[in-house]
Amino acid sequence: MSNKIAKIGVVFTVLFFGLILSPFALADLNLPERPEGYVTDQAQILNNQAELEETLANFEEESSNEIAVVTIPSLEGNSIDDYAVSLFQKWGIGKKGQDNGILLLISRDDRELKIETGYGLEGALPDVTADSIIRNEITPFFKEGDYSTGTTKGVEAIVQATRGEYEATITTEDDSALGGLIGVGVFGIVVVIMIIITIRGRGKYKDQGGSGSSSGGSGDSSWTSSSGGWSSGSGGSSSSFGGFGGGSSGGGGASGRW
Asked: Are 35 and 91 in contact (CB under 8 A)?
């Protein structure tokens, strides 16, 4: 009985400290305060913020979907996936109950970016489409230092995807990676077969009563482009922007580098 009580005490202790420490972990991310517009350019890399604001405002008016574009100087050692989910949670991008928000997060010094998708838009903007937008529309311009054009192209592609007008494409790099994975898988199967044959061959020379056996596992390799659990929050407001509506992230999207 005492052991059971002790175990329960340990569980409650872990939960207690988890709840106590979680706000400090969130604070360590140094998240921007709730925005005054759709575009928050802390990294100061965009020269077309007004045009982006107009595009995103018109998009919300016609569809009710909300897109936030955020640039930051650095992730300060944090994961871009954790940062994106936490920011989505703090700002509440999208409408409450519809979860129709999208976050385009760009970290200048880390040369990383992330498209975080609200649960309500994961069907219109699945991970493979978000990955295609990053690879084909955004990063080619980012590699040239043209952040304004890359961001504009990314926003336009995201809007098109939500309307069903964007066709995701697989790049040569993706094909090469897939071919490499297939090659590794075939090689692994051959090795397992050779091991089994070798063990069985040795068994023939053993005395009766002794036998060898072997079991092989199978590897699983898959492309993943997003992480993070469910998050929710409520947005702020201003005279010109109105604030985000309290949407949630479904953990979908994609991340990339340039």
From this structure: yes
Domains in the chain with CATH codes: 36-169+223-257 (3.10.310.50)
Single-letter code of the amino acid located at 239: S
CB of 241 within 8 A of CB of 105? Answer: no
Specify whether the CB–CB gap between 225 and 80 falls below 8 A: no
CB 110 within 8 A of CB 89: no
**How far apart, in whole angstroms, are the C-alpha atoms of residue 257 and residue 142?**
9
Locate the DSSP E strands across 150-234: 231-232
Find the distance separating the first CA and the last CA of the chain, reported in whole Å: 58
68: exposed, middle or buried (C-beta count within 10 Å: 0-12, 13-18, 19+)? Answer: buried
Per-residue tokens: 209: 């009563």
- Please tell me the pTM assigned to this model: 0.64
- b/e code 186-207 from CB counts within 10 Å (16+ = b): eeeeeeeeeeeeeeeeeeeeee
Helix (H, G, I), strand (E, B) or coil at 134: helix
Helix, strand or coil, per DSSP, at residue 188: helix
Pairing of strands 101-107, 112-118: antiparallel
pLDDT tens-digit series, residues 73-112: 999 999 999 999 999 889 989 888 888 899 999 999 999 9
β-sheet with 66-72: strand ranges across: 39-41, 66-72, 101-107, 112-118, 248-257, 231-232
CA-to-CA distance for 94 and 227, rounded, in angstroms?
Answer: 19
